[in-house]
Write a structure and sequence with these properties.
Keywords: Membrane, Transmembrane, Transmembrane helix. By secondary structure, the chain is mainly alpha-helical. The chain contains eight helices and no strands. 80% of the residues lie in helices and 0% in strands.
């Protein structure tokens, strides 16, 4: 999201709303750019960290936020540590994508009915991966478990994902441009809430 400092009034309000409207596309672009920059195979983990960095800047109230600078810094920092922390989620999601394609063409037992549990598992893994990107390296156990102990947030994300999928099938071009970014933005917002709730619970012990 390009940040342009503007004064108050209608012009400032218009610029802020324009930034919010384009943010989902930029979040998706940050992930794709990070994925390609890592050669696809090694790009999932740093690409996800870059997309989450843009998402967090979008969610921030700081008018001086620099999302793309944060995205580049997130991509470059702890490259190999992020591979160990997040690459397994990328591999699992890639496997689910392959299974979904095979189910869609009737090459898996159960046919299209298999797509529903695959979709739910994919949503869980996306939530988990985003939480891992928020927390940083060495927190994979928390990232794996937190979506399970916060089932309300996970259910909300599944519903959001289903709505985005349906909208994307109905309107492919806008769905491709905005859908992935909206999903990552929602996952980041929910993940930050869940991490904060977990920290508050631990502090209250």
């Amino acid at each position: 999201m390009s940040v342009v400092r503007v004064e108050g009034g209608w012009a400032g309000t218009a610029m802020r709303w324009l930034g919010r409207l384009t943010a989902p596309a930029e979040i998706g672009l940050a992930f794709v750019a990070g994925l390609l920059a890592g050669g696809v195979v090694l790009g999932f983990a740093p690409g996800l960290r870059a997309a989450v960095a843009v998402s967090e800047a979008t969610l921030s109230d700081d008018e001086d936020a620099t999302p793309w600078r944060d995205a580049v810094a997130a991509w470059r920092s702890d490259f190999w540590a992020s591979q160990r922390a997040l690459a397994p989620w990328g591999a699992a999601l890639a496997l689910i994508a392959v299974e979904a394609v095979l189910a869609a063409v009737g090459m898996l037992p159960g046919g299209l009915a298999v797509l529903v549990p695959l979709f739910v598992v994919a949503c869980y893994l996306v939530r988990s991966a985003v939480i891992g990107a928020i927390l940083g390296a060495g927190t994979w156990r928390t990232a794996l478990v937190l979506p399970a102990i916060r089932p309300g947030s996970t259910a909300v994300f599944v519903l959001v994902g289903a709505a985005l999928l349906i909208a994307g099938l109905a309107y492919p071009a806008p769905g491709l441009i905005f859908g992935p970014g909206l999903a990552l933005l929602a996952a980041t917002w929910l993940g930050r809430r869940d991490v904060a709730a977990l920290a508050a619970r631990q502090a209250g012990r």
